[in-house]
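Worked example 2:
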Amino acid sequence: MLLVVGVYIVAGNLVNGVGKGSVGLAKGSVPGAYKALVQKWGNLCPAINPALLAAQLYQESGWDPDVVSHADARGIAQFIPSTWATHGVDGDGDGDRDIWDPNDAIPSAASYDCELAKYVKDVPGDTTNNMLAAYNAGAYRVIKAGGVPAITETQNYVTRIRSLEKSFAAPVSRVDPSKQAAGAIYYAQKKLGTPYLWGGEGTAADGGRFDCSGLTQAAYDSVGISLPRVANDQYNAGPHPARDELLPGDLVFFSKDLNNSRAIHHVGIYVGGGYMIDAPRTGAVIRFDPIDTPDYFGATRVTEDGAKALPTAV
């Protein structure tokens, strides 16, 4: 069992090894095609949970089951073929181990995590952090260092996944307010009345105009937080408050598929009273709009750590 302060609780409660832990996934954070797999296999051992597994998969592939890296890492879990040969499992019981099939690759990612956790179980410190370090640098280096080794890449990987984990977990308590929210709202308010420009980032070349995610990116950049360029990637920049817990400065999102954050098509900055500042569409201007529409998806309370944890390309 592991307590992550102020956001969520991780508990084992395993039944036959998988499927019954208490960590829920944030609404739509995992594409519907993979949610059940992540929820089930994310409870394979106490060192992992569904949100942590989701964070790893998102970091590795952005949920693309067909992606190939420059190092020949393949599929949604980005296994190198040699690693797959020894650690790939037949997750769906169909008689083969297919590196490209999420029904095999996602269980294999969880299984590999749990194998690494066993290797480092006697190492001092947090077992999950040590497991993640072993995933990045190898179990030998973790054992030799007596914990997360002093390797910048490895330390950053552990920090990044633990931060992303918070954005994939459904909160079980109120989410702390954002310290930078007021500054982001102030920036957006100064842009009220500015015409919309698809792809606009507010540059001189854009005539100071924005599209929806260009505005939210610029607003948070003004307070020192760098967000991804597109709305569906911005959704993972922090934990997700419920509708009745929204605070000014939260990003609010709208999706064509209310079960899939990758289908998000619009974002605005919540200002209170059921309203947001947003850049709505071609022919309109940056303005106040109500958030309670049929395509309202959810919200993100942007954190500096959450934004830093996001992969640069998903």
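The CA atoms of residues 73 and 280 lie 39 Å apart. The first helix runs from residue 32 to 41.
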